[in-house]
Design goal:
heterodimer; A: 512 residues; alpha/beta; four-stranded mixed beta sheet; three-stranded mixed beta sheet; 21 helices; 53% helix; 11% strand; globular; B: 427 residues; 16 helices; 42% helix
Chain lengths: 512, 427
């Protein structure tokens, strides 16, 4: 009989090593996963709270909003309102997983299988992560960002830096390139570039140049609107990028801060698009590994039952009228679809053959899944692989809430033959960041006039911006732009629905 | 594949401490208001333990572009009886609206826990002892650094460029170092010169000038001056606070509680804020005794009332231990205002002649029964006496307190930072 990995709930570092080795054997041989090297770190609850407040990263620049996060999490943790996650995993190479010290040996096994192999494989292989993130460089880049922010604070004062970062954070959700084509983020080079630029500035600095008389200003009227828009790269939906490149009166260090915030936003962009898939993958992987370890006799029946207990909690999906309901649980939905794919590939029914001719009965479960994990994001994943059987299982239905409709909210489709496709399309759309985030872009700058920056919000389905928040964000935007900013909300027919104009606040002291 | 397992538990914690401080600094006024509000409701010991406060989220809001309203579509699990084309009533059909808890109403206020230190700091933030350090300063403890002219030696970081260049210029002028223009002029003359004898003379002259230039350097090590720094002792003010409390039989439990709360606050305030403040506790019935803080706050006592005994005791202690020319002297007295009729005169005399002349500040707190209506009818004998003294210009502050919740405002009022008090008075 094979040796048990551990007895009871206690573990030490040798146990963790044995567990990781055992998980790795299953992950690579049975499941064929391809992962970054693993680094496993054991941390305390307090450190977990620390990590929470810096968006899960091991190091981050200092900002008051993270302190607010921390205070908030700490208060709810102390009151027992919130349990802490069992783990946090970081998309970096080596892939760092944090394990809580309170976890039992079974939980540690679960967490290692889940994070160090499930998430890890997804990070390394999914196309979005490959395209948008640089796992090798992220930790160094964060280190650079932290130091850079600190240096800026020393040179230009904490208040100034805070003002810039506040503004950048407000625009963070609109600091993302949504379409590939630009070159992949190389954070190491990024860090070197900033250092070189600074060095160059210091080397060639000569105060005399300031006194050299400038030539007569060129006539700008010659620029046609077309040409001007082209020069500024308009329309531009990445507001932070636009400000970094084109805001007329920002100091170089402010541009660099915007760039840092933008890069970090970009780094997290794939995660927001793959929540269901990412968690589904990790959950499926831990389920397979744990089951295998149990089959091999490496964990006892008792431990396996403990695991099943936590696993069931994780994939629990409350129904819509349940007080615990708060939307679809990405673990539940993701895991269910993964298992369903396994069923379709191995034991398809007629319905599945009709809906999934490509994979039904193909036999190679892991091959299909690895391909799915590599090439889809939440939206396309649901649109492709949510089967009628699962829709029936979850008893899904689609509500259409039109404020104009007096009769109430219409049930538009349910889990029946007529509704399957519509329900599936709507659920996919719910997971499409393109639909979730407001579609805002810079359309023009009045260069010859008062330099007003003009933004458009393309309103979808009549859903406009929250007025208070929009004004506040625009205030930040205007402060960075240093001239008036106008935001116009237009509907699909270019009809203006609402217009905001915000002027910059005066800067208290001149910034170098 | 190598796997690293690292134990991070021993790493220094508190990584978020700095962010937290930044947050508190930013939210200071909000938190301060919350702290004061919370502290009114609490027991004195709990107040100093820190705890949870709630601040409105508005000031700490992080805005984002958010969309709202419009036509909404959603897919939900758990259909039981709906079929396509059904209409659900909007009101009462809460589940759909509630789909995002934590987004809406729950964010209006923000609750979090302050540590003991943070709490007390914020609580005492705008308080200070009035007129501290007006009198003679003794005891030096810390040393500060101050600029003090220039010196000929020092570290390169302290070189004073302007002073060095100035000295070099003076030296060059004094030693008649040839200027660049002189040499250029001469060279031009040589180039233009045709007469050989004259040329020789000019060349010799040039040679001489060049040699001199070489001998007299542009900047000599002698010229270099460094900024000099000097350590100076930083004066620290010495102060003593006398806490005089009436514990006679006429003080009810409620009054004693009020008085003790007041002193507890005073004690915490002084201990935290001033390193060099001595505190003398005197409690009195018909006789006074100096006691330690433990007895002062927790020891039982009862008896008649002679306020003068406490003042006498204070006077003696001042004479023995705290020379008024070396010490800032403060006193805070708490009493129910009852005094033996015969003692009134003596009390008044002691105060005007002995105590007030040496005191920087004398606070009198009169505690009353809960409800406090008795106060309004007639002033107590002590209050009448003190009021008369104050009107004749004595540095006396007087307050009445009859409810727990009044302690904090009164305390703040008494020890509010003076500038701020004046600023408030100005507009």
């Amino acid at each position: 009989m094979t040796e048990r990995l551990f007895e009871g709930a206690d573990w030490d570092f040798h146990t963790l090593q044995r567990i990781t080795d055992a998980c790795e054997a299953v992950a690579t041989k049975d499941l064929g996963l391809d992962v970054y090297p693993n680094q496993i770190e054991v941390i305390t609850a307090e450190q977990m709270l620390d990590a929470y407040s810096s968006v899960g990263m091991p190091l981050f620049y200092k900002h008051w909003s993270f302190g607010k996060q921390f205070a908030y999490h700490e208060a709810s943790y102390r009151k027992g309102l919130m349990g802490l996650a069992y783990e946090i995993v970081i998309n970096s190479s080596p892939c760092i997983s944090y394990l809580m010290e309170e976890n039992t040996a079974t939980m540690q096994t679960l967490v290692i299988a889940h994070a160090a192999f499930g998430h890890n494989h997804f990070f390394k292989n999914n196309y979005l992560f490959k395209q948008w993130t640089d796992a090798d460089g992220i930790l160094d880049y964060l280190d650079f960002a932290k130091t850079y922010v600190m240096q800026c604070e020393e040179r230009y004062g904490r208040v100034e830096v805070e003002r810039t970062l506040d503004a950048a954070h407000a625009l963070m959700s609109h600091g993302i390139d949504r379409y590939p084509g630009k070159k992949k983020l190389d954070l190491r080079a990024e860090e070197k570039r900033a250092g070189r630029r600074r060095q160059h500035e210091e080397e060639v600095f000569n105060d005399l140049w300031r006194t050299v008389p400038k030539g007569a200003a060129k006539s700008r009227s010659a620029l046609s609107i077309e040409r001007r828009r082209k020069l500024l790269g308009l329309p531009q939906e990445n507001l932070l990028y636009f400000l970094e490149k084109s805001a007329p009166r920002l100091a170089p260090w402010q541009r660099e801060l915007l760039r840092i915030v933008r890069h970090i936003a970009q780094y997290f962009y794939p995660q927001s698009q793959t929540k269901v898939m990412n968690e589904g993958t990790a959950t499926y992987v831990h389920y397979r590994i744990m089951t295998k370890l149990h089959e091999q006799g490496r964990i006892t029946d008792g431990n396996f039952l403990e695991f099943l207990g936590s696993h069931t909690n994780v994939v629990f999906q409350p129904e819509f009228d349940d007080p615990r309901f708060s939307g679809f649980n990405p673990y539940a939905l993701g895991f269910a679809v993964m298992q369903d794919i396994e069923r379709i590939v191995t034991k398809p029914e007629d319905e599945d053959r009709e809906w999934f001719p490509d994979i039904a009965g193909k036999g190679d479960v892991m091959g299909v899944l690895r391909d799915v994990w590599a090439n889809y994001r939440d939206e396309s994943f649901i649109a492709q692989f949510l089967s009628p059987k699962l829709m029936r299982h979850f008893r899904m239905f689609h509500l259409h809430d039109d404020p104009e409709e007096r009769a109430g909210i219409r049930v538009d489709a349910i889990h029946d033959e007529r509704g399957f496709r519509r329900v599936r399309r709507e659920l996919a759309r719910q997971h499409d960041v393109g639909f979730i985030d407001a579609n805002i872009e810079v359309v023009d700058v009045d260069l010859s006039g008062d330099r007003r920056l003009i933004l458009h919000h393309h309103v979808i389905k009549g859903s406009q911006l929250n007025e208070t928040d929009a004004k506040r964000v625009l205030q930040h935007l205007a402060d960075l732009w240093t001239y008036d900013v106008a935001l116009i909300e237009v509907d699909a027919n270019d009809k203006v629905m609402r217009e905001y104009v915000v002027s910059p606040r005066p800067i208290p002291a001149a910034v170098a | 594949m190598p796997i690293h397992i690292i134990d991070r538990r021993l790493n220094p914690g508190g990584k978020s401490l700095e962010n937290r401080q930044r947050f508190l600094r930013r939210a200071k006024s909000l938190v301060q208001g919350a702290v004061k509000k919370t502290s009114q409701e609490r027991d004195i010991k709990d107040v100093l333990e820190g705890g949870e406060v709630t601040i409105p989220l508005d000031g700490m809001h992080e805005p984002r572009f958010r969309r709202e309203g419009g036509t909404r579509d959603m897919v939900l699990p758990g259909n039981k009886k709906f079929i396509e084309g059904d209409y659900l009533q909007r009101s009462g059909q809460g589940s759909a609206k509630n789909s995002g808890p934590g987004e809406g109403d729950s964010e209006d206020a923000f609750r979090f826990v302050l540590s003991r230190d943070e709490f007390v700091d914020l609580f005492l933030d705008d308080l200070e002892l009035p007129d501290l350090a007006k009198r003679k300063i003794a005891q030096t403890e810390s040393e500060g650094i101050q600029r003090a002219g220039y010196t000929t030696s020092g570290s390169p970081a302290n070189i004073s460029v302007s002073r060095t260049v100035k000295l070099a210029l003076a030296r060059r002028i004094a030693l008649k170092r040839p200027r660049k223009e002189e040499i250029e002029e001469l060279e031009a003359a040589i180039a233009a010169c045709t007469d050989e004898d004259e040329l020789e003379v000019l060349l010799a002259q040039l040679e001489k000038l060049k040699a001199k230039t070489k001998r007299i350097p542009f900047i000599d090590p002698l010229d270099i001056r460094y900024r000099r720094f000097e350590t100076v002792p930083k004066p620290v003010a010495q102060a003593v606070m006398f806490c005089l409390m009436d514990v006679s039989g006429s003080m009810s439990e409620h009054m004693k509680d009020l008085a003790k709360r007041f002193y507890m606050l005073l004690y915490v305030f002084l201990k935290r804020r001033y390193k060099h403040v001595e505190i003398v506790f005197i409690r009195h019935t018909d006789r006074a005794e100096e006691v330690d803080e433990q007895t002062f706050f927790y020891g039982p006592a009862s008896g008649g009332t002679l306020v003068s005994s406490a003042l006498q005791a204070m006077h003696e202690i001042v004479r023995e231990r705290f020379n008024p020319s070396d010490w800032n002297i403060y006193a805070a007295q708490a009493s129910d205002g009852d005094n033996s009729y015969s003692d009134g005169e003596l009390t008044g005399l002691l105060l005007t002649d002995k105590i007030l002349p040496v005191c920087q500040f004398f606070a009198y707190l009169e505690v009353g029964e809960s409800g406090g209506s008795a106060f309004d009818l007639s002033d107590s004998s002590l209050w009448t006496l003190y009021d008369r003294l104050r009107n004749s210009g004595a540095p006396l502050s007087m307050r009445k307190v009859s409810e727990r919740s009044e302690i904090f405002p009164v305390f703040h009022d008494l020890f509010q930072r003076r500038e701020t008090a004046q600023e408030k008075a100005a507009p």
